[in-house]
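Fold this sequence, please.
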Amino acid sequence: MNVETEIKLRIREPIELVRRRIMELGAVLEETVFERDIYFQHPCRDFGLTDEALRLRLVIDSSNNVKIAKLTYKGPRKGSGVKCREEIEAEIVDIDNVVRILNKLGFMQVAEVNKKREYYRLGPCIISLDQVDGLGEFIEIECDEDSIKKIINELKIRYEAVDKTYLELLIEKRQPWPLSSSNR
């Protein structure tokens, strides 16, 4: 089982300063991409209540071509701040047919998250600097919990820890949550 351990921080500094601080830590910029995340709702289970997600991620290059497409299941989160959750990913080749299969099975597209993402590598850790349409600028750090805490301390930036996913933040902005009575 693949478990993702990460933290999300809303940046309270100019993005140029944050980018410089990431580089000062010795992180290396691996790539800059645009990601289009399309989220689907299960026909019989409310992912808003079970804290699960089914996402189709399209990684788009600077020529506006889909470079990679992945279908990802994310299980319920454990913990707050630094969160852990099961993640199962499969790269797909035929995007249109995968979407048609999901639709035939009753899955419904509920939201889309679009972002520009800069991927930095710092040893075994991945630091993502995100500019999310409609939400602003964030850092996500994916690594073991001790390394995450160390990186945050060394960045020396103002931030707000965010427990919610980008999807939840966007849905909150457009209230009410259309598929759940809980209005998460």
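The helical segments are 15-24, 47-50, 95-104, 145-155, 166-173. The radius of gyration is 17 Å.
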